[in-house]
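Reopening closed ticket. The problem is back. First fold of the pair:
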Amino acid sequence: MSTAGAGVADGEGCRVRVVHQDKVEQARRSQVPAPALEGLSRIFKALGDPSRLKMMIALRETEMCVCDLAAFTGLSESAVSHQLRRLKDLALVRSRREGQIVYYCLDDHHVETLLEVSLAHISE
């Protein structure tokens, strides 16, 4: 453990600067590789858009086509298609074709869990 100088006294920071090397090393050992961190960052950026998030939450319940999602969100079909393409590129949603209609749903249970945990967190 090392100490140096005085820190912030506003209740949000340390009053004394102390570096706990064991904790720093533990954080280094559990660090996520840069490519995975970048991918995670892209996912959180995508989920940061209210329109995309609204679509994702709707897709928790049932698969929907672009027309359904446009009617639900109030966005144009073109805007919904654009958003779905981004979500699909990030493996957050997947599609299946039935005749001339393409249906979208969440990609897998991990995406559903991510939404459920996030919703539970904000409700506490």
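Second fold of the pair, where the issue appears:
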Amino acid sequence: MAFFTEAIGTLQTLVVALGAGLAVWGGINLLEGYGNDNPGAKSQGIKQLMTGGGVALIGMVLVPLLSDLFG
């Protein structure tokens, strides 16, 4: 069981880090879109920002529920 607990903790860290990275990248694209007055970059930036937040939220909420599945 210790292996599953450690693997789930590592998975949670990776998913949250991936989501945070995507959100930061989206924020940069969003600011770049506002700086250049480019609606395409603004749209892409907000999509990436929201997706990154969603992925991070999944990592914080749903991934720990896997421990109940295996425990």
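Update: turned out to be a display glitch only; the data is intact. The chain has a mean pLDDT of 92. Residues 13-63 form one domain. Please close again.
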